[in-house]
Amino acid sequence: MIAPMQIQAPCVVSLSWRLEDAHGQLIDELTEPLEFLVGGDDLFPKVEEALAGHGEGHETTLHLEPEHAFGDYDAQLVFFEERSIFPEQVEVGMRFEGPPPGSTTPDMPADVIYSVTEVYDTHVVLDGNHPLAGIALVLQMKVHAVREATDEEIENGGIGDGEASLVDLAPPGTTLH
Q1: What's the CATH code of the domain at 21?
Q2: 4 lies in a domain?
Q3: Most buried pick, 16, 27, 123, 152, via CB within 10 A?
Q4: What is the mean pLDDT of residues 75-88?
Q5: What is this structure's pTM?
């Protein structure tokens, strides 16, 4: 009889989860298991640590402080831009890779995704923080399966086209998977 595969990098785990903030507010629930690469870019290191050495059927609850999840909130990544540099239909929730063209704040990092958080008649507020930055999280997860990773998955650092990743969770109220 072959022993069940234990989680160790690199391998693929099939997970379901429930993600809440520290106050018990639901952020995301993944009820149908999805596959993630352990040892790649799909999961936080603390999540991988909690899964290591376990196998199918393992359930755990993790408390993730901001530094182990989406980082601390950085007020320096919030800035105002003139409303005139944006499209007419700019709205809260729109995202830009780097400061928008025509930005009057040239010292903002270009490799950050900025979200529109407020729109006024004369200006727009942009925030480069992840929507969950600065938030302590509670992650309940269950391992549904474990398998060897393919060479392609290892080379890509993740599963498939990278649509599903705990690391890239979208803002609350949007679909994360």
Answers
A1: 3.10.50.40
A2: no
A3: 27
A4: 93
A5: 0.78
Q: Would the pLDDT of 174 be above 80?
A: no
On the 0-12 / 13-18 / 19+ scale of CB atoms within 10 A, 110 is: exposed
Cis bond leading into 10, ω under 30°?
Answer: yes
Long-range pairs for 118-122: beta carbons < 8 A, 24 or more residues apart: 118/92, 119/83, 119/90, 119/91, 119/92, 120/83, 121/83, 122/82, 122/83
Domain span including residue 87: 75-127
Whether 1 maps to a domain, the answer reads no
Helical ranges in 97-163 per DSSP H: 151-156
Question: 98: domain CATH number?
Answer: 2.40.10.330
Q: How far apart (Å, rounded) are the C-alpha atoms in residues 11 and 40?
A: 9
Q: Which two tokens stand for residue 5?
A: 């595969």
Q: How many domains does the chain have?
A: 2
Spatial contact of 120 and 157, defined as CB atoms under 8 Å apart = no
| Residue 168 within any structural domain of the chain | no
